[in-house]
């Protein structure tokens, strides 16, 4: 009916603008009235709840699809996986993927990438790598987002060897590593005390003409601290200012640690003065 179409369009508009409360309200009005929500309406509400990090509402809406005699499609499952990822519920994301597969649905890149991202947030690196391999068995080819999320999961779990192996795999698959790929791998190696590998990765990032962000420099500075490379740490700090990447408090702390470890107390005092003049203070 025209009213049902209008209500569905309104919920979709709420989803696009991130108004999950308004979407829930409109959906509740549909159920209480004579307008029976269709699958598109359900999917829009699940997506709205995902954007609002309301995974429980998203799950309730997903379960309600079958209660109303409808059959969830891959969009329904993708929306719930996204809600699980944003709500830090990696188990629910994996379970939703499994339900989709058991239902005979064809997962796509979004399905797997969202599930891998959920595993990343949960530091479930083995699950992430497993999903990366499983993708190809379902005719879905991993992209840069797939690898970046898997490398991030390894980084969070302190598995620098696995992160480095995935980084090399990116190149074998003829995917171009981006700033996120390089930076996340650098961070994994820095956490593992592999400062020489961090320097190599930074060199590769520069060689590819990729921009370095704050996270990139922080990983580099952590490596400088580990390797007692105080001069390189100062050069990295200078590079940040020159390239317009504003150093943060954590950046200065890493440079100070590098100088302090090398007994460069004069440089340490100068950096503390710079922090004060730049308005960077510990609270």
TrEMBL record:
Pfam families xrefs: PPR_2, PPR_3
Keyword annotations: Repeat
Taxonomic superkingdom: Eukaryota
PROSITE patterns: PPR
PPR repeat ranges per the UniProt record: 38-72, 73-107, 108-142, 143-177, 178-212, 213-247, 248-282
Repeat as UniProt keyword: yes
Entry keyword annotation includes Repeat: yes
GO MF, any single term: mRNA binding
Protein name: Pentacotripeptide-repeat region of PRORP domain-containing protein
Source organism of the structure: Alexandrium andersonii
């Amino acid at each position: 009916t025209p009213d049902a179409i209008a209500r569905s369009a309104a919920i979709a508009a709420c989803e696009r603008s991130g108004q999950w409360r308004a979407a829930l309200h409109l959906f509740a009005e549909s159920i209480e009235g004579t307008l029976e929500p269709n699958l598109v309406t359900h999917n829009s509400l699940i997506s709205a709840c995902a954007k609002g990090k309301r995974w429980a509402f998203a799950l309730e809406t997903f379960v309600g699809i079958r209660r109303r005699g409808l059959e969830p499609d891959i969009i329904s499952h993708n929306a719930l996986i996204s809600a699980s990822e944003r709500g830090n519920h990696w188990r629910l994301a994996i379970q939703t993927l499994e339900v989709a597969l058991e239902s005979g649905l064809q997962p796509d890149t979004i399905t797997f990438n969202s599930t891998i991202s959920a595993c990343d947030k949960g530091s479930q690196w083995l699950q992430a790598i497993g999903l990366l391999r499983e993708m190809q068995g379902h005719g879905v080819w991993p992209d840069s987002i797939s690898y970046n999320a898997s490398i991030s999961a390894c980084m969070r779990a302190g598995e620098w060897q696995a992160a480095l192996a995935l980084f090399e795999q990116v190149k074998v698959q003829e995917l171009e590593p981006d700033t996120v790929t390089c930076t996340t791998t650098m961070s994994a190696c820095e956490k593992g005390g592999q400062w020489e590998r961090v320097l190599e990765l930074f060199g590769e990032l520069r060689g590819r003409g990729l921009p370095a962000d704050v996270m990139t420099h922080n990983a580099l500075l952590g490596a400088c601290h580990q390797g007692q490379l105080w001069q390189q740490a100062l050069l990295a700090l200078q590079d940040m200012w020159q390239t317009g990447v504003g150093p943060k408090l954590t950046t200065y702390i890493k440079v100070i640690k590098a100088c302090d470890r090398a007994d460069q107390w004069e440089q340490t005092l100068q950096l503390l003065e710079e922090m004060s003049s730049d308005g960077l203070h510990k609270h």
